[in-house]
Fold this protein.
Amino acid sequence: MSASSIIPEDSNTRTAASGGQGHSGDPPDDTPETEEKARAGIQSIEVGFRLLDVLTQAPRAMMLRDLASRAEMSPAKAHRYLVSFVRLGVVAQDPLNGRYELGGFALQMGLARLARIDGVKLARIALAELHEALDATLGIAVWGNLGPTVVHWIESSRPAKAALKLGDVMPLIGSATGLLFAAYLPRGKTERLIERELSVVRRSPHGSGPRTREELERLLADVRAHGGARVEGLLLPTIDAFCMPVFDSTGGLALGLIALGHEGTFDISWEGQIACALRSCAHRLSYELGYSAEPR
């Protein structure tokens, strides 16, 4: 006689045999009801996160009443969440003045995120989504040994025939991409290339771009004032382009997001759909890379 024949079938045995359901009335894991519960999440976690969000945005530690007010909850309710957050190390409280600040575990989470993040990979995903909305030619440029270098490119359904390819190095003073990097990178990185390109333009009667240092500085000031670079037929005749900056956690320029198209069909307005969508995408990526416009 086998062992299984003398062991009575109890509720635990039935549960295992039925795939983990406690009783026959439980819905399977893939029912609409179960999926709806999964989407609903846990409201208390989302409520408590408001406190962490306020502390993340605040420039300094905060008193309970101010923290609760900014998170739109009562001090008593906020205190209950903060007690748990302090126990977990997500929040710390100064024992002398009672102010709350992000704790050590929050720092470790942030550092772990920064260590794992790949800015170009995030930008490729973001541009794929943006491309569906804009149907413009889009790209990514990073700073390389020779200057701003194109590392990703998506053509629109109406290719701009820009004759650009992966690995192309963009001129610093003759393209939207170059002007963006010239405006935001430390001058020590760009000075040699800027001087070389200025000398080439000055020697050529047909050279494009600024011809003097003063003209260049005015262009770079305009880039910083608008938070992005724009050119109209500068590098390639009839081709207009934008390039928007993505910053990293140190405030440095991580990469540039490019959009270009044919003159007349490409919205070159700073307040147009293309500029606004590209700028918004760059802001989101900067946030993902740990950038904050406010000092911390």
User: Anything to note?
Assistant: The radius of gyration is 27 Å. Confidence is low (pLDDT under 50) at residues 1-27.
